[in-house]
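Task 17 of the worksheet. Students: predict the tertiary structure of the chain below and write it out as C-alpha cells. Keep your answer in the requested format; marks are given for formatting as well as content.
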Amino acid sequence: MENFDPLGTHTGDSIVVAPSQTLPDDEYHMLRSAALKVIRHLGVVGECNIQYALNPASKEYCVIEVNARYVCGFHAFIVSDPFFSLSRSSALASKATGYPLAYTAAKIALGHTLPELPNAVTKTTTACFEPSLDYIVTKIPKWDLAKFSSQVNREVGSSMKSVGEVMAIGRTFEESLQKAIRQVDPRWKGFEAYIQPEDIDGALSKPTDMRLFAIAYAMYNKHYTVDKIHDLTKIDKVGNSLANAPGAVLTLIPSGTSTKSTILSKRTKLSRQPVPLKALITDS
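Model answer:
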C-alpha cells in the first residue's frame, strides 16, 4: 500500500492506495526483500506490517516501524500475550486483497504452514501465493473535526486524529477516489472544490482534513500546474522515467525523504501506464 501524503502525516490520517502506484519494480522488490529480511531476523511468525520512508530522489530508505500484528513467536523480545491485536491498516490490507490475514495468522499459530492452507481467493492454490490485484483500492480517513468548529487545530500530522475510514474499489484510481469521497460525506459528489480558501498556497502546504478539496480548487479555479501543486504539497508526482512523457500525470513526489505517495495516477500494478492529468477532471 502507498500513502497519498508525504512523510509527516500519520498513515491513519492519510489517503492510502493499494496497490502502490508510483513505485517502479526495482524499488518495489528492494523494499519487499528488505521486509523479508527484517521479519526473518526478528523471528516473526504470523502477521506483520512494515512502514518505510523512501527518498524519491534516490533508493535511500529507512524503516519507520515494524508492527507484529498477530504472531505466535517474536524472538527479538519476550511477549506476555501470544497474540497482538490487528490494526486498521491490517484490516484494510485484508479487505483490499481478499486475503484473510487474521485467519491465516491464527492457523499458523496453531502449527499449520502456508503450503498446507488453501488460498481463500482462488480456492485452488495455497496461501503462500501473494495476492495480485487488477483493481485499485482507495482509503480515505473520516474525521469529526468540523463539530468542534474553531476550537481544534484541523491540521493533521504524526498524531492520528481520524475516527474511522472508508474504502472504495475501482478499475482506476480516479474511479476509486470518487467513490471514496462520496462515502466520506453524502453531500459530496466527488473530487470538487468544496472549499475556496483565501490563502490557497497555505491551504496546500499545510495538510488538513480538507486539503484534498483545496487541491481541487487550485486545479479547477486557480489553474495551478502539477509542478506548483507538488512544490506546495510535496505529494508524489511521476518519477524521472515518465516525467517528460506526453500527458504528464499528477503524481507528486516529495523532495525530501518521505513515504512515496500518489495522486491522480491511473497506473496499476498490472498496467503501469500514465494517464493525462485532465482525465480526473473530465471523469468527475
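Marker's comment: The CA atoms of residues 135 and 148 lie 37 Å apart. Residues 25-116 form one domain.
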